[in-house]
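Aim 2 progress update. The chain analyzed this quarter is reproduced below.
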Amino acid sequence: MKQLVLVFIGGGFGSIFRYLLTKYLNNPDTGIPYGTFFVNVFGSLLIGAILGLAIKNQALNQNQTLFLATGFCGGLTTFSAFAYENHLFLKSGNLTHFFLYTIASFTVGLAAVFIGMYVVKVA
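Predicted structure tokens:
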């Protein structure tokens, strides 16, 4: 039960942080979701560092890892918003933004995980 509470609280903090960042970074004039892109890349970097620390000499215990990686990063990042924003790009016929956003999100997000792990010297 304690582990569920840790994930719940961490997820709440991550969701609040995501809401605030996307509120101020997403651009309603152009429709470009800078905020979603940022939270997904930042969350990927953060989860790489967190899981890297958890792997490296067990620097984080299971509860800390659940709170930070599963909870906070899970609440911070958002695949559903990413998918919806891509739907909007396709619906509006904006294939350039669709392809750029999709490719950049996957490649930069994946690279961010490796960078996060490298920063804590695990990769």
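The two ends are 33 Å apart (CA to CA). The mean pLDDT is 93. These observations will guide the mutagenesis experiments scheduled for the next reporting period.
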